[in-house]
């Protein structure tokens, strides 16, 4: 049985560590691929040797070179990739960002914690997402 695959598109090392920490709590075997921006993510997705077909893409909005919204536009125009489930992860609670992402057919929107130094103020939205939504998606794909 092939392991389910996750593509993490994130440029912030602390956020990458946070996501990896949350994913380790899944207790499900999975394959994780990472890209630091939309351009790198598209290269991974279009690489015929890699044959990457992730069950889920976790996508940051604010990244250099190609941000999350730009990536989503290209993804949704690509016949081979437009079906992929994409969850936005961002510190932005701007309505415009959310509306733009929802218009492009995202599966969900996760607000990242703004404060890494004070864990008492930190939201556990990533852990909750991983345990309640991502677990189900990955198990169904197995």
Automatic annotation (TrEMBL):
SMART domains associated with the record: REC
Presence of keyword Disulfide bond: no
Domain of life where this protein originates: Bacteria
Regions crossing the membrane: none
GO BP annotations, alphabetical order: phosphorelay signal transduction system
Keywords of the record: Phosphoprotein
Record-linked SUPFAM superfamilies: CheY-like (SSF52172)
Protein name: CheY chemotaxis protein or a CheY-like REC (Receiver) domain
Organism: Flavobacterium pectinovorum
């Amino acid at each position: 049985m092939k392991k389910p695959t996750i593509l993490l598109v994130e440029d912030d090392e602390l956020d990458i560590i946070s996501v990896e920490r949350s994913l380790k709590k899944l207790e499900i075997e999975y394959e994780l691929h990472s890209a630091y921006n939309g351009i790198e993510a598209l290269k991974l997705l279009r690489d015929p040797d890699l044959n990457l077909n992730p069950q889920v893409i976790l996508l940051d909005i604010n990244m250099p070179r190609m941000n999350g919204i730009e990536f989503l536009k290209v993804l949704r125009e690509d016949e081979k990739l437009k079906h992929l489930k994409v969850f936005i992860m961002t510190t932005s609670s701007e309505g415009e960002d959310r509306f733009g992402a929802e218009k492009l057919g995202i599966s969900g929107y996760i607000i990242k914690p703004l404060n890494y130094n004070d864990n008492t103020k930190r939201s556990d939205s990533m852990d909750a997402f991983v345990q309640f939504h991502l677990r189900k998606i990955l198990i169904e794909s197995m």
